Amino acid sequence: MTPLYQAARKLLDVHGTDVEVAHLVGVLESLPRHTLNTNQRLCTEREPSADMWILTAGCVSVIKRDYAGTDQEMARIQAPALLGHMALVTGKPRSATCDVVEPSIVHLVTQERFVFLLEDLSPQGDAFRRLLISSMSAQLDSGNRAIQRAISEPSARNMSLVESNLHGWNE
Questions:
Q1: By C-alpha distance, which of 150, 143, 160 is closest to 68?
Q2: pTM, whole model, 2 decimals?
Q3: Which residues 6+ apart lie within 8 Å of 47 measured at CB?
Q4: Disulfide check for 24: which of 70, 127, 132, 140 has CB 3.0–4.6 Å away?
Q5: Are the CB atoms for 84 and 73 separated by under 8 Å?
Q6: Cα separation of 27 and 103, whole Å?
Q7: What are residue 42's phi and psi, to 5 degrees?
Q8: Do the beta carbons of residue 52 and residue 114 sit within 8 Å?
């Protein structure tokens, strides 16, 4: 089993997506692959967005500026994961900064490729759409849990977690 196949399988397992692993591998193989070093910046909060990434190896730190203006690490995202997809869906600026914290591999989904995959009726397009929907559902669930936490334990960090998790859902 190749590392790409393993990442695709784990990504589908994590999201409970019932598609053939080979179809997602086909999507990943069709995308430009980038190797990133520690401390490289993937994207910056409030910048315009035109791309998303599929993290297949490594780890990325998600940083959000809180209401006091202080950068807070909201999460460390281990591969495999989707990054930046909400901004592509909504067309809004980035909701967070993502910095690489260990050598990582990402597969770039440009806006043009994103639209193509959404409209693609092939098994690869279906695999991408199902993964995207599942990931967005998980993000909404995480946002709901963050709201519950912010209500029961009010703090600037918990409010930032709510905003970060639900960015784009209020549009």
A1: 160
A2: 0.81
A3: 93, 94
A4: 127
A5: no
A6: 22
A7: -85, -45
A8: yes
- Say which DSSP state 142 is in: H
Q: Which is more confident, 28 or 18?
A: 28
Q: CA-based angle 109:145:151, to the nearest 5?
A: 130
Compute CA distances 102 → 41, 53, 155, 163, whole Å.
12, 16, 30, 26
- For residue 110, give the amino acid letter: T
Pairing relationship of beta strands 51-65 and 71-78 according to DSSP bridges: antiparallel
Tokens, residue 90: 């909504």
* Helices 123-152 & 3-14 angle (0-180, nearest 10): 50
Give the pLDDT score at 171: 44
Rounded to whole angstroms, how far apart are CA atoms 88 and 118?
12
Most confident of 15-29, 39-53, 150-164: 39-53
Which of these, 167, 149, 137, 126, lies nearest to 43 by C-alpha position?
167
Rounded CA separation 61/101 (Å): 6
Residue with tokens 């994961």: 81
Cβ count within 10 A of residue 107: 21
Burial of 40 (0-12, 13-18, 19+ CB in 10 A): middle
How far is Cα 1 from Cα 21, in angstroms, rounded to an integer? 11
